[in-house]
Design goal:
With 186 residues, the chain is an alpha/beta fold. It has one domain. The protein contains three helices and 16 strands. The protein is globular, with a radius of gyration of 17 Å. It starts with a helix and ends with a strand. The relative contact order is 0.20. Keywords: Signal. Residues 1-18 form the signal peptide.
Amino acid sequence: MKNIIALLTLTVSTCAFAQVAIGKSAVTNTSVSVEFGDYVAGQGKGIIVPWVTSAGDVTGAQQGTIVFDTADKIMKYRKADGSWFNLTRNETTTVDGQANYDTTGVVYTILQTSLTDKPDAKVAIGTPTATPGILVLEDSNKAMVLPKVPSPHLNIINPEPGMMVYDTITKQLAVFNGKVWSFWKP
């Protein structure tokens, strides 16, 4: 029931303001569409990216879509050319130069496995368009600010597969695959 109320509140607030602050009273500036509250010691939290059983089976995914692929336990980003880019960084490279990804993470999907998607379900922040997706940030001049967590590998006690945060210590994107954290720096 709490989730339904939270979703309805989020939906109503997005229609009214086109900016959403989660865990805080307001976004920091007008260039932000979604922003998460500040880190509180012992309460490291991140955003859980939607999971799919196989990114290759996803039809109609738009450029910029981010999903967690439970088949190979890799967070993926949809590129402009229609291919998927792996956001779970490899730790080693094989002799032939190919990436060696850690695909041994554990993903507990039983709570959602029996459910079916509603193809028209969508929350849009900004002026709604026909762009498909679960949560679509519609504004072309605003961005989402990820949850900021110092050293998420130390401060998020029980991360979920598909979790994504911004590490304020290393200044990197951090993603969790169910076993290990991967860190990305531009």
